[in-house]
Design goal:
The chain contains 8 helices and 12 strands. The chain has helices at 21-28, 61-68, 75-82, 84-101, 115-122, 142-145, 165-178, 256-265; strands spanning 11-13, 43-47, 105-109, 135-137, 151-156, 179-187, 199-209, 212-223, 226-237, 240-251, 269-271, 279-282. The strands form 2 sheets. Strands 4-1-2-3-5-6-12-11 form an 8-stranded mixed β-sheet. The protein has a 4-stranded antiparallel β-sheet with strand order 7-8-9-10, covered by helices on one side. The longest helix is centred in the N-terminal third of the chain and has 18 residues, at 84-101. The chain starts with 10 loop residues before the first strand and ends with a strand. The relative contact order is 0.16.
């Protein structure tokens, strides 16, 4: 329960180019309040570049198409089935420990489907009632959200690589402003360089749904100065392909030294990350 005499700190939700449906559920439909072990309530800022906050139950192929154009209109059908659980486990490995140490606020940069948000909230002890009253949704980019010193932890999962260099630099600037002095940023870095040719990255599934088998093949290839990630989804029945659909995403490569220089330019000091697959930076304490 909420400790007597302590005011509830509101969650600030700013939903990424992802779908955002789960982030909205986390913001609007959970009947819980997250409180840290010392009973100090934590606020969470969840950032996204799109998503209508007024239609939490309308996220489907048509709604996604309207909100994002072509982005994610194919993947929306397959994400929960093929990727959600893997992403949930990854978020727990990467961010849960740091979330458990947060005392003021957590900023989820690019909330997407809300998988990371769910994981971060689940790590806060003393869950009680009325979490929805502590959540504010800002359906704009982090650069436009105007967040100032709201969080002591910021995480960016599967997002930085999707930003062109100019947007990436403005994102660092916005995160720097949003962090409290001493606040920590954790993120998975973009690819350091272009692939030499078309490469197979991995395979999702297979997952059976009734008589059908769902799966996906993932490849990447260079295209000028960017990396194109291609998801080829397929549905099979009795050994026959019923459907096959593709969706392509653009990634902008940047090496660790370049990323470090960009962070330093925005007042963020590169520090040791807790995992080899993450980079970390901290806003200096005053």
């Amino acid at each position: 329960m909420q400790a007597a005499g302590r005011a509830k700190v509101p969650f600030v939700v700013v939903p990424s180019r992802g779908l955002g449906e789960r982030a909205l559920r986390a913001a609007g439909n959970w009947n819980t309040t997250s409180v840290l072990p010392d009973s100090s309530p934590v606020s969470t800022a969840v950032r996204s570049r799109t998503l209508s906050a007024t239609r939490p139950n309308a996220v489907g192929r048509t709604a996604v198409s309207e909100m994002f154009g072509a982005d994610y209109t194919v993947s929306v059908e397959f994400y929960d089935l093929l990727q959600a659980e893997t992403d949930r486990r990854s978020a727990k490995r990467r961010f849960a420990e740091a979330a458990g140490r947060a005392r003021h606020g957590i900023l989820d940069v690019g909330a997407g489907t809300g998988i990371v948000t769910e994981t971060l909230l689940s790590r806060l002890a003393g869950l009680g009632a009325d979490q929805r009253a502590r959540v504010t949704l800002h359906p704009v980019s982090i650069e436009r959200a105007g967040l100032e010193e709201v969080a002591d932890l910021a995480v960016a999962s599967n997002v930085i690589a999707c930003l062109d260099p100019a947007t990436r630099r403005s994102t660092w600037q916005a995160v720097s402003r949003a962090l409290l002095p001493g606040g920590l940023l954790l993120f998975d870095p973009p690819p350091a360089e272009l692939p030499t040719g078309r490469e197979t990255v991995g395979r999702l599934g297979p997952v059976r749904v009734g008589a059908d088998i769902y799966g996906a093949d993932i490849t990447r290839e260079p295209d000028g100065g960017i990396v194109r990630m291609v998801f080829t989804y397929h549905v099979e029945r009795d050994g026959r392909v019923l459907r096959q659909q593709r969706e392509t995403f653009e990634l902008w490569p940047a090496g660790a030294s370049q990323i470090g220089a960009e962070l330093e330019a925005q007042g963020l000091q590169v520090v040791q990350a807790p995992r080899a697959d993450l980079l970390a930076a901290r806003r200096p304490a005053r």
